[in-house]
Amino acid sequence: MSEKLLIVEDDKKLNDGIRLALKNDAYFFYQCRTLQEAREILKKEDITLVLLDVNLPDGNGIDFVREVRKNSQVPIILLTVNNMEVDIVTGLEAGANDYITKPFSLMVLRARVSVQLRNKEAAAKNSMELDGFEFYFDKMEFFKDGEPIELSKTEQKLLRVLCENRGKVLKREYLIDEVWQGDTEFVDAHALTVAVKRLRDKLEDDTQKPEYIKTVYGIGYTWAVNG
Helix %, strand %, coil % for the chain, to 5? Predict the structure, then answer.
């Protein structure tokens, strides 16, 4: 799946230069030269990362960061004129993820973009929203219909493996190995069954007819994608 990058820079030569510098089969570029164009693209497209000039013909990029942050956490890298320390501090406080001062090295540009895309990918793996559930594995916070759920470390590990492999049937042996990682010789044969039961008790409306954590008899368990 392509990463969708939005370049908001009114200098056409620099705008095109950034696109050429970042050219990559995994990236798809949207280019615009005003904040109004940027607004329209952000409304229509699921943008992965924004490269945003601070000084634009129809407004200030930092004000635009505040506007975007009201309903989106898309990574934003500011493009600022060298030595404008006030812009940098204000931009980061407004919610920008990083900044690059002009003139900049294309190697630095590529590296900064890669870092933000990696961070976004890592954050996505640490949080999941499924149906009425919200799981934040890095913060160890879990919610069902807005209500907090307390999970043990074992239950958290089991939940994560199931959710990251939604729709796949996972063998009991694989789950035991993933959840207890290396301590499998000390794991009671029924430990997985017990962990699954406890997790179902906390997540399912009807544990006799589970919608999410389903047993695949003789094999293991699956998190049903149509749950």
Answer: 45, 25, 30
CATH of the domain at 195: 1.10.10.10
Per residue in 114-144, pLDDT (tens digit) is 999 988 877 766 777 778 888 888 888 899 9
Residue spans of alpha helices (H) in 127-190: 153-164, 172-180
Q: Is the dihedral of CA 187, 188, 189, 190 positive or negative?
A: negative
Spatial distance between the Cα atoms of 93 and 40, rounded to a whole number of angstroms: 25
Cα–Cα distance measured from residue 36 to residue 227, given in angstroms and rounded to the nearest whole number: 40
Q: Of 90, 106, 126, which one is at a domain's C-terminal end?
A: 126
Domains of the chain: total: 2
Q: What is the DSSP letter of 166?
A: T
Q: What's the start-to-end Cα distance of the chain, in Å?
A: 25
Written as six digits, the tokens of 126 are: 């640490």
List 78's β-bridge partners, or say none: 52, 99
Same domain for 197 and 122? no
Answer with the one of 126, 151, 179 that is the final residue of a domain.
126
Average pLDDT over residues 175-193: 81
- Is 146 found in the same domain as 115? no
Residues 6+ apart with CB under 8 A from 148: 141, 142
pLDDT at 63: 95
- Tokens of residue 100, six digits: 């690059």
